[in-house]
Amino acid sequence: MSSFDFALYYPLIALGLIYTVLSVAGRIVEGRGRPDVGETLQTLGFGAILLAAPYTVVLLVMSLISYPIRLSDMAIIFAIIFVFFGVLLGLLLLLAEVRVGGRPVGAYVGTLAGAAFAVFIALSIF
Questions:
Q1: Which has the least CB within 10 A, 7, 9, 70, 93?
Q2: Cα dihedral sign, 87-92-98-101
Q3: Structural domain boundaries of the chain?
Q4: Which residues 6+ apart lie within 8 Å of 79 measured at CB?
Q5: How many Å apart are CA 82 and CA 85, to the nearest integer?
Q6: Alpha carbon of 30 to those of 27, 33, 39, 43, 61: distances in Å?
Q7: 100 - beta bridge partners?
Q8: Contact between 110 and 92 (Cβ < 8 Å)
Q9: What confidence tier does 5 reach under pLDDT thresholds 50, 70, 90?
Q10: Is the pTM of this model over 0.70?
């Protein structure tokens, strides 16, 4: 298998929709004075999510078999991301202790960092 078809993810989308519909319907029925039926519907919705878990593992195994080279690239990317966010979090925590005019400097820097991160994500998508 050289590439993953998006159709492989349709069962996960369907199970997620089933969970959502059954959970919301269960809450509505529960609110209308039938807690036993509402709880049954919510339990069935939870069962749908439990069915999605093994299928997710199957997709994971298929992707590991299909893309062994990309696995090492993914590990390197995750390591870089964790180090970057660890350093960023450390700086923000340090700056949160320094106060300027009664407000922590980290509040300003955190806002700017969040905006920069949002722009970075938007640029990486497009």
A1: 7
A2: positive
A3: 1-66, 68-126
A4: none
A5: 5
A6: 5, 6, 7, 13, 39
A7: 103
A8: yes
A9: confident
A10: no
Within the chain, residue ranges assigned H as helices are 10-31, 35-66, 68-97, 105-125
CB of 95 closer than 8 Å to CB of 105: yes
Tokens of 55: 């299928």
Can you give the length of the chain in residues? 126
**3-class DSSP assignment, residue 27:** helix
Beta bridge partners of 59: none
| Amino acid (one-letter) located at 87 | V
Angle, in degrees to the nearest 10, between helices 68-97 and 105-125: 160
What percent of the chain is modeled with pLDDT above 70?
79
- Structure tokens, 12: 């996960």
- Of residues 39 and 77, more confidence is placed in 39
* Residue 20 CA neighbour count, 13 Å, CB half: 6
Phi first, then psi, for residue 18 (nearest 5°) are -60, -45
CA distances from 20 to 14, 27, 108 (A): 10, 11, 38
